[in-house]
Amino acid sequence: AVTRTFSIIKPDATRRNLTGAVTKMLEEAGLRVVASKRIHMTREQAEGFYAVHKERPFFGELVDFMISEPVVVQVLEGEDAVQKNRDVMGATNPADAAEGTIRKTHALSIGENSVHGSDSDENAAIEIRHFFNDDEIVG
Ligand code: CMP
Question: 19, 41, 108, 129: least buried by Cβ within 10 Å?
């Protein structure tokens, strides 16, 4: 089925002017950008978005990183979008990511790993709502 997922191009990628390069890889994987905006997340936004990780030892570092510079938040649409996006992103740790994936190609470390993607349809819906109104998504 054609579904949607939520993506973030993270500060390590925007800083290196890789917004287009990353988006091209998403598009070539069969995903369509149906919403996109460049934002500088507030601490409150980042803490809310990553609330599920708040007990993790890297939470503070993760939030600091995500608010360090602008990010690009996107809604991606395609056949089985969550899985398609996860496949093209590659493993969380770029050292474990497969050849040809975004993280293998561009990520710097497990924290500075260039992209975020939703891990389920349910979380995709929650994450999309965190950053986009319905009228900002044009399919
Ligand atoms: P993301 O998909 O955005 O969701 C949670 C993020 O936590 C994950 O990508 C990683 O970038 C980050 N993360 C996971 N493990 C670590 C770690 N050990 N140190 C720093 N960041 C981490």
Answer: 129
Q: How far is the CA of 25 from the centre of ligand 1 (A)?
A: 21
Q: For ligand 1, atom 20, which residue shows the shortest CA distance? A: 111
- Which residues share a beta bridge with 39? 71
Residues paired with residue 9 on neighbouring β-strands, in sequence order: 72, 115
C-alpha of residue 127 to centroid of ligand 1, in Å: 16
Closest ligand 1 atom, CA of 53?
A: 5
pTM of the model: 0.98
Is the complex ipTM more than 0.90?
yes
CA dihedral 9, 10, 14, 19 (to 10 degrees): -10
Q: Are 85 and 7 in contact (CB under 8 A)?
A: yes
Say if ligand 1 is within 6 A of residue 92 CB: yes
Distance CA 64, CA 50 (A): 12
